[in-house]
Amino acid sequence: MLKLNSGNITNQLIALGQRLSGQANAQVTHAGLMFDSNYIVEAQGSGIEAHDVRVQNAQLGYIVFRARNQRLAQGAGTCAKMMFDIQGRHQTMKYNLSGAVKSLFGSGRARSAASMDDLLTDVLSGKGHPFFCSQLVVYVYQFVAEQNGIRGSQIFQEHDAKVSPATLASMLASNSNFTEVGYMLPGAR
Fold it and tell me: CB neighbours of 160 closer than 8 A, spacing ≥ 6?
């Protein structure tokens, strides 16, 4: 689920930054994962949250992508819900704006299956990790792929999930593992 610029100041700043850096799809300012037909899991500054797209996010517009592999799609929803539940228990996956910006310019090292397992072990034990929105989406799909015998790098080529929402939109549009299934218009659920 890729959220379109809702016009609030944060979304305007994200869109401006993406536009100034020459990214296509600059109007895509946030990303999340559906864990059922009504709830989206999203990484925000306060941590990983779940919102009902019919109520809390009814005023927002989304571009909707779906994984073509059913096990990958279902696993991503389950993993996203698990991350939300862990955040609820430990409150250790918060980030600040400067942290999100800095994370986009990280080391660029590739994540191995073992390093993804280590990260999940840290999260499960309460050590946490500050995910930002598109980083959470990429990590969840890479992790679930590895758990299903698919190399995470076959799902997303980006290393260490250092992608903006606009870049994630471009990646999904050209990724044979996903299909764009439509739009969710603001106020139309």
Answer: 106, 107, 108, 109, 110, 111
Domain coverage including residue 8: 2-184
* Domain CATH for 79: 3.90.1720
Q: Tell me: the pLDDT tens digits for 103-157?
A: 555 545 556 777 778 888 888 888 878 888 999 999 999 999 999 999 998 998 7
Q: CA-CA distance, 55 to 59, in Å (whole number)?
A: 8
Mean pLDDT of the 84-101 span = 84
- Distance (Å, whole) CA 31 – CA 44: 10
**73, part of any domain:** yes
What is the residue-averaged pLDDT of the chain?
89
Q: pTM of this prediction?
A: 0.90
Helix (H), strand (E) at residue 114: helix 113-124
Tally the domains of the chain.
1
Phi, psi (5° rounding) for residue 63?
Answer: -100, 130
Nearest to 100 by CA among 154, 23, 43, 168: 43
Q: Is residue 75 part of a domain?
A: yes
pLDDT of residue 120: 84
Of 88 and 187, the one with more pLDDT: 88
With residue 16 as reference, give the H or E element that holds it: helix 9-20
What are the tokens at 158?
Answer: 């980006």
